[in-house]
Amino acid sequence: MRRREVLFGGAGAVVLAGAGGALWSLRSPRAALAASAEVFEITKTDEEWRALLSDAQFEVLREEGTERAFTSPLNDEKRKGVFHCAGCDLPVYSSEKKYDSGTGWPSFWDAEPHAVGMREDNSFFMTRNECHCRRCGGHLGHIFDDGPQPTGLRHCINGVAMTFKPATA
To answer: Active-site residue among 85, 88, 131, 156?
Structure first.
């Protein structure tokens, strides 16, 4: 019995230690994508995505990781412009719908029309609404129902999953 406790306790410590890093994930994105049966306009192999994305972008967009709160410069971005998917450059969020939620991640009360898809996320022993780029399937973040009007939604998005293009005068 003690040996089992040590083995299971050690495995739990490894999971918790991994969660303390800059990025973390407890489920396989491939399993989630396969289960969703979605087909995306842009598809690439892991090798192609790795060549295109930074390690942090790959972890979030392709493996459904999460960046640490308050680490993205896009959280403090206040200029007018458009946030694009870092994977395929699709415009996904407008600065006009961005607000400071205090969570440490860029937050928006709505996405650009037809820019994001959603699916159920049952990781971390809870059910959440995961959102992803509708064109390439890249994981962006989650959507919660505690945001401001007019939608009452909070799109809590990983900054590393996006790039920002300022509006031209």
So the answer is: 156
